[in-house]
Write a structure and sequence with these properties.
The protein contains nine helices and no strands. With 150 residues, the protein is mainly α.
Length: 150
Amino acid sequence: MPSPTPLSRLELHRSRCCICCGNHQEEIDEAFVSWEFVGHIAEEYKINRRAIYRHAHATGLFEKRDQNIRRALGRIIHEADHVAITGDTVVRAIKILTHVNTHGEWVQPPTQISYSSATANAAAAAPVIQARKLPKRSDTTCKVKKRLKH
């Protein structure tokens, strides 16, 4: 008779976890990934907070939740009228939100956008305007301040 194969860590977790063995695993997982407050999840489903965190670590929910960071930032922005959040907090959350894509990855938005509505033919037919050459300046902070004062 062959020896039984040992259970993987995930299988062992699932055999002992009150969340995996319960009827509400999908709802609990969704709430956790959606950045719901763990204390509220624990109250609603009458389970221990530590059990939620153990379950989240074992099943990889932290990685999924991290990819859903836009949801958490959106909640901060949405709750700005209801809690004591400063304007600076909201502005920073909005700024961060613009840097996180739908996969939870940090992206640097373009700093300069060039737009032209002219077609290639119209651009070729248009006369070329020569830019006036300005003398080169080596501006230091002190020189700029002096020019601004005058």
